[in-house]
Design goal:
Helicase, Ruva Protein, domain 3; about 80% helix; 2 domains
Amino acid sequence: MKHLKVLTGLFVLVWISMGQVTTASAGAVLQDLENALMCKCDDKCGKVLLNCTCSTSDKTRAKFSKMLESGLTVDQIIKMQVDEYGETVLSAPSKFGFNLTAWLTPFVALVAGGFGVRKVLLACVGKKDDSDSAEAPGAETEISGKYSKRLKDELDGIEL
């Protein structure tokens, strides 16, 4: 009899915790949906639905909650919104077609720009090194000749 009470208590505990996980999971699913879509309010605020606080966003959240409770998935709801409003409702562009170019172009430009800057810097540094090495022997001879003459004059003045 005592084992039956322990098992019943354990079952109730597991059942209650499962209900809390489902509730938390439903909240996370709604947040994922809100993060994937832009707010379509009259003010045209341009915010992600998750961050918008207007009355339209509250109505949209309630509508999405009902849709999720009815059994629709996040992907199905997103597709419905894209069909209704177009791809501008998405918070991030899709990763295919022309939008793939929009994703890749900045990275390609950064890499190409980095190589371009490197090439220009190496060309400038290379020219400076070449010009320094070409002038160095002549300039060094001129400077050492000037100091040699002065040193000779100083040494001659000491001997007298």
